[in-house]
Each structure stands twice: as structure tokens, then as C-alpha cells.
Amino acid sequence: MAKKVALLQGNEACAQGALYAGCNFFGGYPITPSTEVAEVLSVELPKIGGKFIQMEDEIAAMASIIGGALAGSKALTATSGPGMSLKQELLGYACIAEVPCVIINVMRGGPSTGMPTGPGQSDVQQAKWGTHGDHPVIALVPASCQEIFTETVRAFNLAEKYRMPVQVLYDEIIGHMRERIEFPEPGELEIINRTEPSVGPEEYKPFDPSFGDVPPMAAFGSGYRFHVTGLNKAADGFPTTKADLVDNEQRRQLRKISAAQSDIELNEEYMTEDAEVVVFAYGSTSRSARYAVNELRKEGVKAGMFRPITLWPFPEKRIAELGKQAKAIIVAELNLGQMNLEVERCVKGACDVPFIGRVDGEPINPGQIMDKVKEVK
Amino acid sequence: MAKKVALLQGNEACAQGALYAGCNFFGGYPITPSTEVAEVLSVELPKIGGKFIQMEDEIAAMASIIGGALAGSKALTATSGPGMSLKQELLGYACIAEVPCVIINVMRGGPSTGMPTGPGQSDVQQAKWGTHGDHPVIALVPASCQEIFTETVRAFNLAEKYRMPVQVLYDEIIGHMRERIEFPEPGELEIINRTEPSVGPEEYKPFDPSFGDVPPMAAFGSGYRFHVTGLNKAADGFPTTKADLVDNEQRRQLRKISAAQSDIELNEEYMTEDAEVVVFAYGSTSRSARYAVNELRKEGVKAGMFRPITLWPFPEKRIAELGKQAKAIIVAELNLGQMNLEVERCVKGACDVPFIGRVDGEPINPGQIMDKVKEVK
Amino acid sequence: MSSPRIEVIERYCKGCSICVEFCPTKVLEMDGFVVRVAKPEACINCMQCELRCPDFAIKVHAE
Amino acid sequence: MSSPRIEVIERYCKGCSICVEFCPTKVLEMDGFVVRVAKPEACINCMQCELRCPDFAIKVHAE
Amino acid sequence: MAFDYDKYLRPGKLPHIWCPGCGHGIAMKGLIRAIDTCGLDKSNTAIVSGIGCASRLPGYVDFNTLHTAHGRAAAFATGVKMAKPEMNVIVVGGDGDGTAIGGNHFIHACRRNIDMTYVIFNNFIYGMTGGQFSPCTPTGHKASTTVYGNPDPVFDISKLAIGAGASFVARTTAFHATQIDKLIAEGIKHKGLSVIEVLDDCPTTYGRRNKFRSVIEMMERLKTMAVPVAAASKMTAEQLEGKVLTGVLHKEEKPEYCEQYAEVIKRAKGA
Amino acid sequence: MAFDYDKYLRPGKLPHIWCPGCGHGIAMKGLIRAIDTCGLDKSNTAIVSGIGCASRLPGYVDFNTLHTAHGRAAAFATGVKMAKPEMNVIVVGGDGDGTAIGGNHFIHACRRNIDMTYVIFNNFIYGMTGGQFSPCTPTGHKASTTVYGNPDPVFDISKLAIGAGASFVARTTAFHATQIDKLIAEGIKHKGLSVIEVLDDCPTTYGRRNKFRSVIEMMERLKTMAVPVAAASKMTAEQLEGKVLTGVLHKEEKPEYCEQYAEVIKRAKGA
Amino acid sequence: MAERYELRFSGAGGQGLITAGIILAEAASIVEGKHAVQSQSYGPEARGGASKSEVIIADEPIDYPKATLVDACLAMTQEAADKYSKDIRPGGLLLVDEDFVQNPPVGDFKVIKMPIVNTAKNEVGRMIVANVVALGAMVALTEVVSRESGETAVLSRVPEAFRELNKTAFNLGFEKVKALIG
Amino acid sequence: MAERYELRFSGAGGQGLITAGIILAEAASIVEGKHAVQSQSYGPEARGGASKSEVIIADEPIDYPKATLVDACLAMTQEAADKYSKDIRPGGLLLVDEDFVQNPPVGDFKVIKMPIVNTAKNEVGRMIVANVVALGAMVALTEVVSRESGETAVLSRVPEAFRELNKTAFNLGFEKVKALIG
Ligand SMILES: Cc1ncc(C[n+]2csc(CCOP(=O)(O)OP(=O)(O)O)c2C)c(N)n1
Ligand SMILES: Cc1ncc(C[n+]2csc(CCOP(=O)(O)OP(=O)(O)O)c2C)c(N)n1
Ligand code: SF4
Ligand code: SF4
Ligand code: SF4
Ligand code: SF4
Ligand code: SF4
Ligand code: SF4
Ligand SMILES: [Mg+2]
Ligand SMILES: [Mg+2]
After folding, report:
1. Which CATH code for domain C5-61?
2. CA torsion through residues F209, F212, F216, F218, sign
3. For ligand 2, what atom is nearest to the CA of residue B82?
4. D12 — contact with chain F (CB < 8 Å)?
């Protein structure tokens, strides 16, 4: 039988990906250009007995999905820059309390209200540093409607696997554009669910490190009664200020990600094998970059593209290698300088890192990239 | 006449510095370990006819100081990590609307509620990236009670001069410890006030670039009627989506800082002239570093310390130079890896950047630093 | 007494037809996307149209 | 009927003296920072002390 | 005589962004007439808003205007007022802005009884973002996120304001156009926090989905919904079913916040 | 017979962090007795709090416990309840947590009428951070940020809750210890959002600054302040001056949110 | 068909041009199995003013999703015609509603005039289907998808009750243009 | 005086030990013009439990503001003595309230016992000044500031009405220790 196909907006694809992944809880607050994610789920979730709730603001939305996730749901929220800024405190809460959930940030122009209906890619450093304190971060940056679908599924999987919030960031352009989506069959994509405790309620500790860096997680109401707090805590979940206990917990949390980089990292490389100039681009900008690379190759220019699909943790090693291979890694993004800094850090001076930034509400077009590549050649 | 001296807590020194700088508006919401800043100002401000208001939350506190500043006040708020996370959206508003104000972040352990009475330095990247969108950032990191006083004054000066929010970050240790403060005489420290319009209300445009990258600012109620918005705007203050107008404004705002780096940057170097190992440290940690450097020098080790007092914009150039001179720049901070990344970026591989991090509620002690220096030697 | 002059600022009029509906004497009419003063002489200067136009698009000038 | 047994959990008692003040028959007394059962025989089993202790530090066991 | 709105409008900013038939324009005109009635000095008046269609109002009027972030208008306005108590401060915004994300600042402004006027444009919907339900969307009605009928109970904004301590609370509708300026003017003159709720219409996102065939029908609904407080006292509970009271719903004299703070200053200076 | 609190306490967690004489302990015991009265299954009950002294309660009791961020308890709790409507969800927290930073989530929980019980420990102050005034600190009183006397008017929490749409609202004090469990139990049994305000005491930060010489004096004040609703109806306005009403202040039957949402699900599945 | 074919539908907000774009993209990508990307630009506030919807159709996956040089553009209003005809490629096509675009822009492209709204209003009987009339016309003009695919896509979007109406509209648009361009 | 002298005041929350530390730091830095840093550690919640205040005094500016090896420690309760006597330097001093520290810790330091709270209660007449008694005792014991400077600092902190009381407390503490250590 042929697969189900449909022409979907990026935001619709996101909602469909969430449903495929088993999402059964959405808590949100409307904001352009993310609203369609909520709108689709408000229709679809009740059909499967799932819950859709529109909360009083983005903080409450974030709180509701953490609450929902603790009660066993696979929970999602979707927002844009201003909402993302508001969610920061509770994003940190989800990190320290190790609650799996997925946050969609459909990026528009910023800062502040900025340009609500224009595209932006200027929340990518915020994705890592927005909340105070040290915490693990996973952020994915799909570049097409189909990929929004699959990356949303992957976001849920990573959230469940590593027991933490996972962010998916894409810009208004792909959030609002429509492409054909092929719906994977049930079972076609792997679906991961959180590990449930293998010990009984009496022995259960919610952050028991003896089960590894990602301890099993029980749901509220399942017979396991435990404590959850945003204070620094010991393995038993109760607050502590004992230096060694705090240290253990804090480092374990970061280690969840640092030790699993290879499992989480996902990149696409396009014609980088022999590339003298590599364009680093993600999201909608990578589409311009690919177009540019194709054109440049036609002209005999050895250009290639590196496209992170997992933005955080950052593909440090591979960028360092490319830095040694290429004359330059051009970073193109819809902001005034964000991921280029990270690329600069990783190449350690081995090559130039020219930058193309744009924040006027227009996309970076292939021509801009081609010009820059020719400049550095 | 002898200067007025007093034994003051860091937080008290901050409040006194603010008063010296001409602060006449405080809007806050209590949070450990910053509360004493508010407490002192609640007593002192009304004495000089200034305003102290305790708002319903940190968002409202931030809103109130922006409102107060637009009405002509020199406005301050003080908070700690969780509050800082909540303020992010409006911090971005203050940036795009170019409203001078000062935000104190007395850093505690994080993320989330973390360790409210323990020290931390884990909000330093948040200071730059916490809000969505591109925006200029100035952040200062004093290391003693006296310096909290003077840096608070400088924060107000920079806020007024560059017409933007300025953050002052210090950790719980110096926020709560007491040292002797010498109060500068009135006039001893320079006090800068925002430039008022030189044109009449009819010609006034609130973001008129013909007056330079920092256009003069009128106060509400002064006869100049203008519009303020968090949307992307043109020079006349009204919202626009015209690409060129948006671009001009966005770039001008970043240029305010990038073009004035030398005016804003402030570092202390201690025995770096011939240092083979440089310790990069700020805030309370720099005190341990200085202690360690002194001890190491006694042992004949050529150690030195680089201490940023302006953390953002980052002292890129000087770090690059030191990277070439030193075998290693050790970064010591109360977090699990933040400013070390920035140092790594700037040295471009010219030297090693070993890291000492701590997040267990205890300070980094001189011994830890000495050990690390000896390791890399 | 001559009847009031009805000024329609076409650039502002969005054609919502509120004024048309509220005019008690059917002075106004829709003309595609904008309003038209069809029967100026019938105007009784009740100001309903001006009061209710959401777009500042209609003014009633009594002499 | 023998008088109830008053159990004070010293580790929990913070010496607020609420129980002392509310005991109608002066069974309890402060002893430095903790409460002491001074006149157990006077206890009338009214449960006031247990009810009002904020620290779960006092229990009244009627036989 | 035609009312001279131009005196208060910024030249060159019209037409405004609101859709054809959007009630916000009617409410805005009422606000301007009220300001005119009260004779407020333009340079000494600030109009503060959040984000939403209604919140775009300040851009069009010639005062000290402050278009803030979604939901935060009352808090910004409080800062302006505290800094310059001699200024007239008026907050405008939508039902979503004021009672969803901005609910906390709204109730605290009411509690403080700071001398500002809060005009809330209640069109029962989040208009700007395309018609998701707001805390004021009637239960059972449709919005883009409640296609099966809104399960949420609504806020009675006026009741909420009174519960929070507002000292002047009034309500009217876009149909009752002349009452808008009267009530706002009374609110402006009132010392303390005054709330004026104007029920209006969003044909584009609310009207269409809820089967109103025209703006006029929406106006009709406002007309029939409204019962003046005086009339209501003579009506039975059944008769009041589905109705909303209009007019001044609550008025009391209470200490004003800036005046109270002036007392603090006095005490501090005396101390 | 001694009440067996141990059944509900987590072993090894006492003594709690509260100061000597802190009323939170008394209120907590009332909550435990109420839960016992209602016979709630521990594994099927969640206790959710924000941040503050009062909000430390969940750590001590043997349920599904969730100590969230400052002010956000009601929103987290709403998520838990929506996800598992069959669970009993109880929110606890201070006056600051619930009505200052958490005011918005509080009023929206009231509006939704979601079946949870919100027990608010009103000690008139921000205890945890050392005694800054809260929206419930009496006007004129002292706090660390109002040394000249608090200029802020106070929230009447119960009135606010009613204004926001709560369907069950009750109030008592730490002095009226046996009433605490009765009212909370009634609230738990009530279908919909119930608010029980317990006026209690913070000797450390509020008592000291306001010249109370002992916890007992603070208890006395609570005793004399309180007037049962029934009694109040027979008293004059002057007699009620400075008093607060206690008992069930408001009770009505309204559709419960999770049930309403269950209807949405039905409609969606039918569609 | 060219490797990459760019179409633009422009007019006033509320005229259904986004829907027209979507239907065309569906005809191409779902019915015909080509690659298509549809996008639109929102006004400052997504209400009022000029509105546009773009569709790019290709045999290969489409990288850059925005128009570079437009092959064919529809303009239903004067404002839209003025604003959005700028980047029509040399030799491209511009279809205008002759009743609303009184001064069609001139340039290195071919202008086709047709009474779109009026056809909907007077010949189909419902102004609301003007966008479908326009779609039929654009399909006829560009042949970027077949008439049948276009019709299938239209019909799969509309409820049973409106199928005839839309079918008529689509075909009228198609035929009118065919008649015009011969 | 050593180049860097570290003192610690420990006991129960509410005993005024932070104030004692502050007064000592003021005596050193304001009255005597030396360098001093005072700090304290808060319990998890700043209430109840053991509490400590540290003062570092030096002739030079003080870098590291926390205690490294404590020269002299005061412990008013058993819990504090157990918890905070650990990092007293070899040969350092530990002053305990003999009525509350029944089992003074043993180590390579000198323990001095004295009835601090009881002196305040019975000899000064107000338990609340126990911290000032302790301060007098610590000054006598360490000679880190002069008796006069200590007294000056105490008096400049207290309201007129309580000056005598505090003066008495300070001097009683001072003298008792002098008598003890000869
Ligand atoms: C922090 C934040 N969240 C969400 C939004 C998106 N948003 C803009 S306006 C609005 C609602 C507007 O509704 P209302 O206040 O009722 O005004 P209306 O448009 O109906 O006049 C929303 C949700 C935003 N701009 N910022
Ligand atoms: C976002 C945030 N802001 C501020 C604080 C600081 N804070 C902690 S508890 C508290 C107030 C507590 O008052 P209340 O809720 O009345 O509880 P109480 O301590 O009086 O029981 C404050 C302001 C915080 N932890 N987080
Ligand atoms: S003034 Fe009255 S009568 Fe005249 S046009 Fe307007 S509405 Fe009609
Ligand atoms: S009410 Fe105003 S906008 Fe509407 S049709 Fe009449 S003039 Fe035009
Ligand atoms: S039960 Fe009553 S009488 Fe007995 S000790 Fe307690 S309070 Fe006193
Ligand atoms: S009430 Fe409890 S804590 Fe207080 S003194 Fe009595 S037993 Fe101790
Ligand atoms: S969307 Fe609704 S509220 Fe917004 S302008 Fe249009 S009609 Fe008015
Ligand atoms: S500070 Fe107040 S509220 Fe907090 S535990 Fe102590 S007495 Fe209770
Ligand atoms: Mg609205
Ligand atoms: Mg409290």
C-alpha cells in the first residue's frame, strides 16, 4: 500500500510528528509563527484521548507540560522567541528535575516582539544558555517539512531516553511553508519511551545513579511515591546542600549528554569530501546553501555544505576536522553572529570563519552565499 | 576631611553605589541572595524623594524600571538566577527600545531554584544570550565590595551613555561578605546622564541616527511625544517591516557596543607581564586566583592573573595576545564550563585552556588553582 | 437649514458598512469596497455614521 | 482511669512553648529549648498540646 | 459638528491595521473623546499597551506612547506613573493581553489602586494571532484551538477587577458608542485605578467562526446582551441569564498609591 | 487517641525546616488530618507547591510530591491533573507564592474550576527570603522593605478567588486548628477548584518586626481577628472593622474542567 | 516544464490566494508526484493589505523555497500588481484581474487580462470562488500541472456541497484563459 | 598579629553571632584601619540549625575571603563545635560555652571553656547579649584588636539605651577570659 502523503506546513508536520511519537499532552500559549502546531493538536489530541490545554501564558504552558510529563504523558509545547524567553526559568527546572518533554521554538525576528511574521535564527545560542545555571542541552534544527516530522519524533525519543527537555528550533520560513510529507508507517520509525523502574516502590530513588547516568523514571500515580524539586538534590530526590552529593548530581546531569554525543549528534554533509570552502548552515538557510553549492559546483568551485541537524550538543570534532581541511568555513545564519562563534571556537584558528548574517526579515539567498564563497576563494 | 568609610556587605555597597550614581527608582522582587540591595534602597530612596516599588514578580519589576527610565528616572532592579531567567523577555525589550537601566544579578547555584544560599557563577553566558534575538550586551563582574560600588556607578554610566540595559553580576560570596568601603566624595567619580535631545519636539526622532549610534533620548512628560515599541522599528520609533530600515536599526544597535569596546572594556592584569600560566578568573574566584598567584610566585612559578571587570563585551584581543604569550590560560569559575569556551574561541588554539569548575556550593579555593597551574607547568 | 456635508476619507474607509447600516435615513451606500454618499440631502445630522465608523473615515460637517 | 501518657519527641521540639501556653492544666513546662512534661498526672487528655504543636513533637496517648 | 479626532491622531499613521469592522476602532474613538472631555494635556499623558490588535492603538495617537510586551502593559505603566505621578497614565489592551498573560499585573494594579485608567478591549478572542480562545471566549464557542467548542469557563473581567480591589469598574460595549467616552472619562477623573471594559467585536477571527454573518450582527448581539445596572436591579435572575451589566459597576473611595507613597517619602525624610 | 501523623510523613525527614512557632506546621497537620478524613490513597494523591517556607511542605509528606518554582504550583498542578484526572491534586504554598508571583496561575486555576484543592498558608509576609512585604502584609505594617510602614493595599485572597471564579472558598486561622482540617476536607470533597486560606504566623520575620512579643500573641491576634461567617451576619460594619470572616465563604456547583474536557474528547471521537 | 517553475498568487488578504497556492502545490506534489513548495508572506500583522502566496514546482527536491525569478504571477488588485510583479523573470507571465488592475505594470513579461472576480460573481454566482477561477486560469496559462490534476486537487479540498461550484469555477477560469491565449 | 588572622563565630541561628563577627570586623577595619572581611554561611534556608560567621583580619588587602585554617574559633553549641572546629589550625584556639558544649572536640588546638550564655543571663541580666560577651572573650583571647577598639565598635552599633548593657557584656567577656588564661 502506498504511504499516506500530504502537503503540510512545517508546523503541521511538527504536530503530526508529535502524534507519531506518541505525544498525548500539549500545553501551550498561542504565538506567531508557531500557532499552527497548537491548532492542529487541539483538533487531533482529543481524538486519541490526549489532552490539549491552552494555558494563561508561556510559563504556565511550560509548567503544565512538566506536570503532565511527571504524570506519565509525552508532553509538548510550542512557542516562539518571546515565549521562549519566558519559559527559561522552567526549562531549567525541567533540566534539573530531569523531566522529559519537547519544546518547539519557531523562530521569528527578534529581540523582543521584533518581527512576528518574519523569519529569524537568532535564538540558537539562547537554546543553550537561556536559563541560568549549568544544565544539559539538546536542540535540533530541521530544515524541511519532512525533517520537522522526523526530528520531532527524534526529539521525543531523545527526551525520553535522556530524561530531559529537548528543543526543536526552526524558522518561520519552514514553519509556514508547505511541502509534501510522507507519513512513516507505524513502527517504521523507532519510538523510545522512558525507562520505568525495575525496582519496587520501596527501593526506588528517582535519580538512582546505580542505574547509569539516566536513572529510570516512575510516573506520578503509578504507586511510586517520590519527591521532585528544583533545588539541588541528592540521588533520592530530596534537597541537599552537601557538597559531594550536589556535585555528583550536577555532573551526572551534564554527563548524560557529553557521554552520549555520538548518539545525539546528527549532521548532513553535502559535497564536503573535497570542499575547499564549506558553508555551515542549518534550517531554512541550509536550503539556500545547498542551492548555492550546486551552482558553485557547476562553476567548478569546490564548495560543500555542513548542516547540523543536532545543533546542541555541537558537532565539535567534525567541525575541527573540516577546519583543517577547508580554507574557510562560511557560517550563514539569520542573525548577527551566533553559531559562527561556536565554529570559530572549534576550528581553533585552523581556517577562516567568514560570516553571513541577515536580520531584516528576508531569507539569506543563494546569491549572497555564492558571492561570499567566491570572495574567500 | 577623612572620607566616609563603612563596613558594608557587597549588596549594601551596590545600593550605595546606585545612590551615588543618581539612581532614583528601584523596582524589584525579593530573591536570595540579592535582597539586601532592595532592602537598603527601600530605606534610602524615599529619603531623597526617589521611588522604591516592590512589584508582583520579576517580570513586573523589569517592566517597572523600563517604565520609570522612560519617564526620566535612573532605574535599577536586583535579582538572582531564577529572577534573571524571568526577566529575559523584557531585557530584550530594553535592548531594542534602547532604555537605559541597570540589572543586578547576584549569582547563586543553579539551574532552577538550585542552591539559593550558595554561590555560583553560572549565569555569565546567560547574561549574553538569555533573551532571544540579537542584541547588544554589557555585563560587569566586580570582585570586591568596593568594586561593587564603583562598578555599579559605572553600570549606570554605561547604561546612560549607550542607552541600554547594563547587567552587573557578582556571586553570593561577595554579595554577602562585608568589607570596608570608602565612599567617594560627590564629584570624585564621573556621573554620566543620558544625552537629551538638542532639537525641538517637532524634529525629534527617538532613534535618529544623524546624532550617531546612540541617539539622544527624551523623557516621557518632557514635551517630547514619541512612540516606543518592541517591534522592529525605524528611526522614528514606529514599527516597520521594511528590510532596509530594520537592518539599519538592528545593526546600529549592535554597533553601539562593538564600536565602543575600548570605552567599555575594563580588565585587571596581575603579574601577567612574564606569566607562563595565566589564570582567567572573575568575581570572587579571582580572589582565590590572586592568592594562588602570590603563593606560586613565592615558589618561583611564573603565574599571573587576568581578571575581566567588563565581562561582556569580551576582551577578545587581549585574550588572544595572552594566548600567544602563555603556555596555558586556566579558566577558573563557579560553573561547569562557560567563559572557558569564550577564552578557547579567542586564543584560536594558540595555547591550552584548562578548566577548573565547581558547582557544589563551595568556592574554588587557592589550592585548587595552584594544583592546576602546577599540572600544566 | 442646508443638510450637513458628509466627508468620506476613502483612503481610510475599509468598507465595513457599519455607517450604512446605522444611518437612519439611508444616506449612505456601499460602492464595492468603500462607502458612498448616495443621498446627501436626506441627512439629518444624527452623527451616527461618524460616531460608529471604526476607521475615522467619515466626518459629518454641519454648517 | 489513669492519666494519658504524654510523649515528647525531643529531637523535633523547637521550644516554641505553644503547647505550654495552650495546656489548660499546666502539665507542660519549658526546660531551656525543649518542653518537659512537668505534671503528667494533671493531664485531662484535651489534646490541645498535640493539636497545636507545629513540630509533630508531642503526642498524647490515652490508654 | 464633527469631532476633531485629528487633534489627537498622529499624522500619516492612518489607516490603522485593524480589519474592516473591527470594534477596536470604535473603542479607540471613545477613548479619544474621553481624553478630550477631561482636557488632558497630550504631553503629560502616557498611553501604554501590551501586544495584540488592540495594543496597536498607541501608535496612532499623539501622546507619550508605549507599546510594550504581551501582557506587561500595567507593569510598565506602573513604572511610568511611580516615576512621574503628575502624568496621566492610560493603559489599553485586549482581553488576552490583560487577562491571560497579563492577568497578574492587572490584578496587582487593581490592588495597588494606583491612579491609572485601564481600558480593556474585550473582543472575546486572541485576534492578533488568528483567533485562539481567550479567557473571555464564551464557553462552548469556537476558536481556532477549540473546534469542538470551548470547554473553558470565562473571566468576568469586572468581577475579577473588583475582587482584586479596583476602586472604579465600569463596562460598556462598542454598540453603546457614546457610553464609551462617558465611562472612560469618569474613570480618568476617578482617583485610583479605574477599569473600563469595552465589549467589542472581532469579525475576522471570532465572528466568522461563530457564524455571525456580519459586523452588524455582532453589534446586535452586544446591544441585546447589555443591561444597564439600574435596569438590572429590577430584573429577575432568569431575565438576566446571558446578559451582562453595563454602566458603573463599582466605585469607592480608597487611598491612591502614589499619594500613599508620597506619605512614605514624608516619613522617610522626617526620620 | 493520638492522631497517627506518621502514616503520612516520610520517615527521617523531620524535624522540618520551619522556625520555632511557625504556623506552617499547624496548618500542615490540619492538611494531613483532612487527607485522612477523606481517605485519599497516598499513591493517587499529588501535593504540589511553589517556593517559600510553606512550599517546603511536600518534602515531608509521603505522596507524589512536587516542589516547583516560585509561584508556578497551580500551573504544574494543572498539568498533573489534566494528564491524570483520576488523581487527587492538592496545591500548597504561601501568600507570596500564591498571590504575588503566582497570582496569575491562581486566578486561572479558579477560573477553570479544575478539581484541585489549593491550601494557601497566609502568614502575611515573604518568610523564606527574610520578611519583605507580600501582597497580604497589612497596610501600615513593617517588613524589611517597608520600614516606614507598608503603603500597599492588601489582597483579600478569598475575595480574589471568588472574583476569579473559584467554586469553593473558605478561610480559617492557625488558631482555629480543628477548623483547618474540616475546611480542607470539605474543599477536597468539593468538585472543582477549592481554595482554603489559612491565616498563620511567621514569628521570625513578621512577628518580630511588628512588635509581637511571642507566638502566643500572634495566635491571640488570629483568634480575635476571626469572625465566623454566621456570626458576622449579625454584626454591624463597625463591629466587623479589622475582622476577617472565617468558615465557608463561597460554595457553588459549576462544571468541573476535567469533566468538561472529557466531553471535548467525546465530541472529538464522535466527529 | 522548466527544472524549477515559480508561481506567485497575489491580491488582497482574504481573497483566498493562499488556498489557491496550496491547491496548486497539492496538484503538483500529491496528484502528480512532483516536488512542490508553497509559501506565503504575511503582512506585518497577518491582516489586511496585500497578500501573496508562492508555489515552486520542480522535478527535483527544492532547496531554496522562496521565489528567485517568478515565472508566472497572478495579481488580483492594483496594489498587489504594483508590489509583486517586480521580480517576474524576463519573458514571464502576469495574469491580472482586469476589473481591479486598471494599470497593469509594464515590463519584460506578458500581461494577460481577465475578469476574474466578475467571472466568479456573475458566471459562477459566488464571489468567494474567485480564487478557484484564478487557479484554473493559472493552470491553463502555465500548464505547470494538467487540467485534470488541478481539478482533482480542487475537489479534494472542498466539502461535498461545494464541489460543483468549485469545479465550475476552476473550469471557467481554465477555459477563459485558453480562449484568450488561443 | 599574623599576616592573616582567621576567626570563626559559630552557634545556633538567632544567637547573634553574625553581628559579633561584624562588630569585630568593624573594630579591625573601621576603628583600627586594618583590612578585614566578614562573611557567613547560610543554612539551606537561612533559618534554624548551626550558624557561622567568619572574620579575616590582615594588614594587607585580603584576597581569598573564606577561612582556610582558622586561628580562633568560638562555638556556642555542641552542634556548632562538632561541625565547625574541624579546620582550626594546629595550635589554634577554640572557645566554647561550657554549659552548652559538654563534649568539646579534641584536636591540635587549645580549648578554653567559659559560661558565655550564663554570664549574659545571670551577670549582665539579658541573655540576648551573649554574643557580645563572646565577642569580648574572643578579643581578649586573640588580641586581634585592642580592647578599646572592640568596645568602640560595640558601642557604635547599639542604640543609646543599650550602650551600658553591651559595654558591661563586652567587658565581662573580656575579663573572664583574661582571668582564665592569666
Ligand atoms: C510573550 C508573548 N506571547 C504570545 C504572543 C502572541 N500574541 C500576540 S497578541 C496575542 C493575543 C492578543 O489577544 P488580545 O490581547 O485579546 O488582543 P486582540 O488581538 O484580540 O485585540 C498573542 C497571544 C506574544 N506576542 N508574546
Ligand atoms: C523566581 C523567584 N523569585 C523569587 C524567589 C525568592 N523567594 C523565595 S520564597 C519567596 C517568598 C516566599 O513567601 P511566601 O510564598 O509567602 O512563603 P513563606 O516563606 O512566607 O511561607 C521569594 C520571594 C524565588 N525563589 N524565585
Ligand atoms: S449623520 Fe446620520 S443621517 Fe447623516 S449620514 Fe450620518 S448617519 Fe446618516
Ligand atoms: S463605517 Fe467607516 S470604514 Fe465602515 S464603511 Fe463606513 S466609512 Fe467605511
Ligand atoms: S492533653 Fe491537654 S491537658 Fe494533657 S498535656 Fe496536652 S494540653 Fe495539657
Ligand atoms: S509546641 Fe511542640 S515544638 Fe513547641 S514547645 Fe511544645 S512540643 Fe516543643
Ligand atoms: S483580527 Fe480581529 S481584533 Fe484584530 S484587527 Fe482584525 S477584527 Fe480586529
Ligand atoms: S521564616 Fe517565618 S514562615 Fe519561614 S519558617 Fe520561619 S517562621 Fe515560618
Ligand atoms: Mg482580544
Ligand atoms: Mg508568606
Report:
1. 3.30.70.20
2. negative
3. 1
4. yes
Q: What is the arithmetic mean of pLDDT over H81-93?
A: 94
The residue to which cell 510586551 is assigned = E69
Measured CA to CA, the distance from residue E89 to residue E46 in angstroms comes to 5
Q: What is the DSSP letter of E207?
A: I
Q: Are A23 and A75 in contact (CB under 8 A)?
A: yes
Counting as contact any 3 or more CB pairs under 8 A, the partners of H are A, B, F
Length of chain C as a residue count: 63
Element containing residue G26 per DSSP (H, E): helix G17-26
Residue B318 CA to ligand 5 center (angstroms) comes to 74
CATH topology of domain A5-182: Rossmann fold (3.40.50)
Give, using CA atoms, the residue closest to atom 5 of ligand 7: E18
Question: Is B56 in CB contact (< 8 Å) with chain F?
Answer: yes
- Computed over every residue of chain H, the mean pLDDT equals 92
Task: Name the residue type at position A166.
Answer: V
Extract the C-alpha cell encoding F120: 494557601
Determine whether the shortest distance from the Cβ of D19 to ligand 6 is under 6 A.
Answer: yes
E146 strand-pairing partners? E143
Which residue range forms the structural domain that includes residue G116?
A: 4-181
Print the domain residue range for F98: 11-270
Q: Do chains E and F touch (3 or more CB pairs under 8 A)?
A: yes
CA distance D32 to D17: 10
CA B72 to chain centre: 21
Q: Is the separation of the CB atoms in E92 and E31 below 8 Å? A: yes
Whether pLDDT at E191 is above 50: yes
Instruction: Provide long-range contacts, Cβ within 8 A and 24+ apart, for E268-271.
Output: E268/B43, E268/B46, E268/B47, E268/F148, E269/B46, E269/B47, E269/B49, E271/B47, E271/F148
- Which range, F32-46, F230-244, G47-61, has the best average confidence (pLDDT)? F32-46
What is this structure's pTM? Answer: 0.98
Min CA distance, B307 vs chain H (Å)? 13
CB distance F143 to F137 below 8 Å = yes
Grid cell in block for residue B15: 545600593
**Same CATH fold assignment for domains A5-182 and A268-376:** yes
Domain map (residue ranges) of chain A: 5-182, 209-262, 268-376
Percentage of chain F modeled with pLDDT above 90:
99
Phi/psi for F149 (5° steps) reads 100, 130
Question: What Å distances lie between residue H24 and A299, B144, D15, E176, E219, CA to CA?
Answer: 79, 19, 31, 72, 75
How far is residue B353's CA from residue B350's CA, in Å, rounded to a whole number? Answer: 9
- pLDDT number for residue B2: 76
Q: How many domains are there within chain F?
A: 1
Return the number of CB contacts < 8 Å for E and F. 93
Domain boundaries, chain D: 5-61
Helices marked H in E130-176: 157-164
Name the pLDDT band for D1 (thresholds 50, 70, 90). low
Residue A169, phi-psi category: left (phi > 0), alpha (psi -120 to 50), beta (remainder):
beta
Long-range contacts of A238-242 (CB under 8 A, 24+ apart): A238/F13, A238/F59, A239/F59, A239/F67, A239/H44, A241/B115, A241/B117, A241/B118, A241/B361, A241/H43, A241/H44
Q: In this predicted model, what pLDDT tens digit does every residue of B289-328 receive, in sequence order?
A: 999 999 999 999 999 999 999 999 999 999 999 999 999 9
Contact F17 H45 (CB under 8 A): yes
* Average confidence (pLDDT) over A122-134: 98
Query: What is the rounded distance in angstroms from the CA atom of residue B151 to the CA atom of residue B157?
Result: 9
How confident is residue G48, by pLDDT bands cut at 50, 70 and 90? low
Average pLDDT of the residues in E65-77: 98
- Say how far apart CA E196 and CA E183 lie, in whole Å: 7
Q: Is D47 in the pocket of ligand 5 (CB under 6 A)?
A: yes
Which of E105, E106, E107 should one mutate to test binding to chain F, selecting the residue with the greatest count of F CBs within 10 A? E107
* E153–chain F Cβ distance below 8 A for any pair: yes
